[in-house]
Amino acid sequence: MNKPELLSDVAGPKARHQTTQVMVGHVAVGGGAPIVVQSMTNTDTADVDG
Q1: Is the Cβ–Cβ distance between 38 and 32 less than 8 Å?
Q2: 3-class SS at 27?
Q3: Fewer Cβ within 10 Å of end Cβ, the chain: N or C?
């Protein structure tokens, strides 16, 4: 029997294209800057006990 091909055997992850870093207010976006997430929560997200 032949081993079925896995998707990972056929194609690897797609390479990211180079982007230019820009500032949005005081936050860097693109160009290798870390991912930033904005939240609409009104609670203290560091308070895990509630």
Answers
A1: no
A2: strand
A3: N
pTM of the model: 0.47
- Tokens 């929560």 locate to 41
Q: Phi-psi region for residue 2, left (φ > 0), alpha (ψ -120 to 50) or beta?
A: beta
| Residues contacting residue 31 through CB under 8 Å, at least 6 positions apart | 18, 19, 20, 21, 22
Query: Tens digit of pLDDT for each residue in 1-14?
Result: 676 666 556 667 78
> What H or E segment, with its residue span, contains residue 9?
helix 7-10
